[in-house]
Each structure stands twice: as C-alpha cells, then as structure tokens.
Amino acid sequence: MPLVVTMGDPAGIGPELLLAAWRNRAEFGLPPFYVLADPDVMRTRARDLAIHVGVATCTPEEVEQCFASALPVVTLENRADTRSGADAPASPDAVVEAIATAVAHVKAGLATGMVTSPITKKSLYAAGFKYPGHTEYLGALAATHWPDEPAAPVMMLAGPDLRTVPITVHIPIHAIPQAWLKERIIEVARITARDLETRFGIATPRLVLAGLNPHAGEGGTIGHEDETVSRPAVEQLRAEGIDIAGPLPADTLFHARARKGYDAALCAYHDQALIPVKTLAFDETVNVTLGLPFVRTSPDHGTAFDIAGKGIARPDSLVAAIRLADQLSRDHTR
Ligand SMILES: NC(=O)C1=CN([C@@H]2O[C@H](COP(=O)(O)OP(=O)(O)OC[C@H]3O[C@@H](n4cnc5c(N)ncnc54)[C@H](O)[C@@H]3O)[C@@H](O)[C@H]2O)C=CC1
Ligand SMILES: NCC(=O)COP(=O)(O)O
C-alpha cells in the first residue's frame, strides 16, 4: 500500500518538492506515494518550473500501477489557486480537505500512513481554522475516526543526532508559564517514552526535561516553576519507571556530548525545541506526530513563500519525512 501525502499550501514550496521527490524517487529510494491535491496546481508548478514530471489523476486503488510512470494525484473536491508566493490568494478549503481526507484514507486502509506538506497557519486562522496546526487537528480527526483509541498528539522533531519535543507549542511566549503544568509534562513524557519504544524500537528510552527558566531556575531563585512544576513532574515520572532526568539547564543540553546522554529532550516551548534541531540538521529533520493511532510525518520547514515557485527549494526534509513514514508504517506495532 502507498503513503498519502497532502499538497500543503499550494502557494508554498510543497507542490514543487513533491514533483522533485517523485522525479528522483529511485535515487531517494522512496516507496509508492500519492498526493491529495488539485491536479491543476501540480501541473502548473511542473510547467512553470520546467520539471518534466507527468501528473496522473487516479484513485488510491490505482496508485500502484500509476506510480511508475507519473506522479499519482487523487483530486480534491475543492479547487486551489495555482499561483505561488506570499501574495497568492489562500486556498484554505482545499488545504484542510487534503488533511482530513488523508486521515480518512489511512482509516479506510487505502494508505499506510500520511505525510503532510507545509501549510501557512495565518491564512487558515483567518479562514476560521480552529486548530494551532496539523498536530492538534490530527488529534481531533483521530478522535473522530478512532473513537475507541486515545489520541493525544505530541509533536516531535527527529533529526539524525537529536530528537526534541516541545511541551508547549504554538502559544505566545507570555502564555507559556500558565501552560507549564505538571499534568501536561507527565502526559507528553509518557507518550514520548511509549512511542520511542513501540515505534522507534528504543527498548528503554532516556528522556531529559529542559528547564523553563535560565539555569533551570537556579534553585528557585530565577523563577519558581522548575521547582514547583518541573521537578515534581520528573519525580512522578521516575516513580512510574520512566527514565527521565531534569529539569536541566537548556543552554547546555544540546552540545554533542550532552546529546549522547538521551534519546529525546522534552523542551518547555517551541523555539527551545526547534532551534537546536533545525540548526543541527535543517535539511534532514522530520516533524513526526506521536500519540496518534496512525503514522504522520512532515518536513521540518514551512511554506517558504520567499522561494516558492523559483525551483530552488531543497526536497531533503520532505524526502526524509516520506522515508520515516514508510519505516514507521512498516514497524507499526500498535
Ligand atoms: N509543518 C508545517 O506545516 C509548518 C508550517 N510552517 C508555516 O510556514 C510559514 C513560513 O514559516 P517560516 O518561519 O518562514 O519558515 P520556513 O521554514 O517556511 O522558511 C524559513 C527559511 O528557510 C528557507 N527554507 C525553508 N524550507 C526550505 C527548503 N526546503 N529549501 C530551501 N530553503 C528552505 C526559507 O526560504 C526561509 O528563508 C508560516 O506561515 C508557518 O506557519 C512552518 C513550519 C512548519
Ligand atoms: N513549527 C512547527 C510547525 O509549525 C509544525 O506544526 P504542525 O502543523 O505540524 O502542527
């Protein structure tokens, strides 16, 4: 069975990366996949960038026979604007339809797992989209399609030498202290430990928790949260048998020697988690959602409107996302 990939924001780099990934599928060693898209977007981008890739509309059942000769596209009901770049009109209905349809296809057994291409949050919010991003929307879709399975989506960025998990994600900096809750830390740590074991094959995952405050609060003298919230959470997790250390000062958590001491770093907020992993390996890192009853990966980067439609975007992270989704789908033990 193939993987399903969403086109992402049609104005971003997603469509050209998908064309490049299919064109070099043999070199990249990619498994069969199909794209949920408006085929006009894919054909227009291929023509504009002189990427000589055929785009074949098909059903998910026809992907296997189609994949060898053309990029298989399963057509969305909503049309999307074919222009690229920051000034192109948004296509929120098609963008959201692709995500929802991908989950439905996985549930229906038409695809083994899903990969999402980048979306821009701002135009989705303007159109009334109620979720911070894919991660939370996928949690809601999972609850609908798998009502008997708990869905608590957790974002993990997985690079060759570092995995990080932001405990708070797309919230403003001023809201982080209120969201820094013992229960939330415990839930994220449990899911991360379980999925590293069941999906990534790490027998006893070693976790570390980064401090919220500078120097992890310096014993409560630079902010109280690491003593009143982080430390009790770590103590409870250790009592449950989870191998976790912390809270540790975040500034010394990501250098090469420190990274050898853990399998994933749980971080207090978005940039604490994403800066180190993207700095170390922007082109190889993959965003993978833990805690779902299905496999979902994504490149680590966004829509890159500044280079969309110019033919210079690198497909590496998308390729890594497709490869990881394939591997996780094969190893899926839950
Ligand atoms: N998974 C997703 O759907 C994600 C979506 N986003 C969205 O993307 C939009 C743009 O976000 P930014 O912060 O500007 O980050 P971005 O990752 O889109 O771009 C940051 C910089 O990296 C470059 N870049 C990104 N991907 C590249 C690639 N494959 N090859 C070469 N250069 C590349 C861009 O040209 C830009 O200079 C935002 O609206 C954000 O919400 C951001 C991250 C993930
Ligand atoms: N910065 C990471 C990001 O925006 C990815 O979010 P999601 O759409 O995968 O939830």
From TrEMBL:
According to the UniProt entry, its GO molecular function terms are: 4-hydroxythreonine-4-phosphate dehydrogenase activity; cobalt ion binding; magnesium ion binding; NAD binding; zinc ion binding
Cite the record's note on assembly: Homodimer.
**Where's it mainly located?**
cytoplasm
Q: What does this protein do?
A: Catalyzes the NAD(P)-dependent oxidation of 4-(phosphooxy)-L-threonine (HTP) into 2-amino-3-oxo-4-(phosphooxy)butyric acid which spontaneously decarboxylates to form 3-amino-2-oxopropyl phosphate (AHAP).
Keyword Cytoplasm assigned to the entry: answer is yes
Positions annotated to bind a divalent metal cation: 170, 215, 270
Which EC class is the enzyme in? oxidoreductase
Name of the protein this chain belongs to: 4-hydroxythreonine-4-phosphate dehydrogenase
Where can this protein be found? Cytoplasm
Q: What is its EC number?
A: 1.1.1.262
Which species does the entry assign this protein to?
A: Breoghania corrubedonensis
Similarity-based family: Belongs to the PdxA family.
One Gene Ontology term from the biological process aspect of the record: pyridoxine biosynthetic process
